[in-house]
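Supplementary Note 3. Input sequence used for the single-chain structure prediction.
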Amino acid sequence: MTPRPTVAIALAVALQTFAAAQSTPARDPIALGASTAQRNAAAHVLVPLLRDVRTRAQRPVEVKPGTVPDSPFAGTQTTLFAFTVSQRSVPVDARVVAAMDRLIAWQVDDPNAAETGRLFDRWLGALMEKTTGAVLVQGRGPCDLACMTQRMTTLDESWGASPRGRADTRDAVLLDALAAVALK
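The predicted structure, written as discrete structure tokens, is reproduced below.
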């Protein structure tokens, strides 16, 4: 038989362990079943991509001098004025810009930035949905976190014909995924 003081001590230790577990906030599970190291590595690769997206999201419409080809009839310029207007025509919601700013300023290993980490995990999930669909359409099979990270950083012909257009398309996917989670 076990003496009563030992049972009381064991019960007290069990209650303390239970109380400590209840007072420690549970971390949200990392998106996509990835390990913490894989998630943090993806953050170090994907979040810097938002810097260019952020710059373009806040850039106002630009109007600057443009050119037109010479007239085929006259062989010289027949246009008195030519202007080039930037491509961006849809303003980015302020909440999406704020979410972008939070992610860009985020220190991945900072335990006090759990809320930003959860934002990143939701964004990562939205990126996975968009990437998995594109990869499946190409007939490559399911795409895990490493595949998605590589897809976002490798601007191959699957993103479009012109190199400039590829970056624009990828940036649009990054922005759309962030808008999907920031506007909820």
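Strands lie at 63-65, 83-85. Residues 27-60+90-182 form one domain.
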